[in-house]
Amino acid sequence: VTVFVDASEAEEFAQVAFKPLNSLPYDSPGQTFVAFEKPEGQPTVGKFSNMLKFIYRE
């Protein structure tokens, strides 16, 4: 499981790291992360859209 982050409305922020989730069994919680660096001297406001991407295997 990965998170795709659309930061097109927060262009001053830069993605610096991500951590996908290797496996997510059915009906179980999990965590995946994306980290952004905020620019020096800029307000800490930005608009981000997130989409989860799954690869399903039986």
Walkthrough of the structure:
With 58 residues, the protein is mainly beta. It has one domain (2-53). The protein has no helices and 4 strands. It has strands at residues 2-9, 14-19, 33-37, 47-53. It has a two-stranded antiparallel ribbon. The mean pLDDT is 87.
Outline the fold blueprint.
Layout: E1 2-9, E2 14-19, E3 33-37, E4 47-53
Antiparallel strand pairs: 1-4, 2-3
Average pLDDT number: 87
Helix content: under 10%
Number of domains: 1
Element order, helices and strands?
EEEE
- Kindly, what is the distance between the CA atoms of the first and last residues, rounded to a whole number of angstroms? 15 Å
Largest sheet: 2 strands, antiparallel
Category from helices, strands and their pairing: mainly beta
Main sheet strand line-up: 1-4
Count every beta strand, where a strand is a DSSP E run of 2 or more residues: 4
What is the global morphology? elongated
Protein name: Coatomer gamma subunit appendage Ig-like subdomain domain-containing protein
Domain Coatomer gamma subunit appendage Ig-like subdomain: 1-58
GO molecular function: structural molecule activity
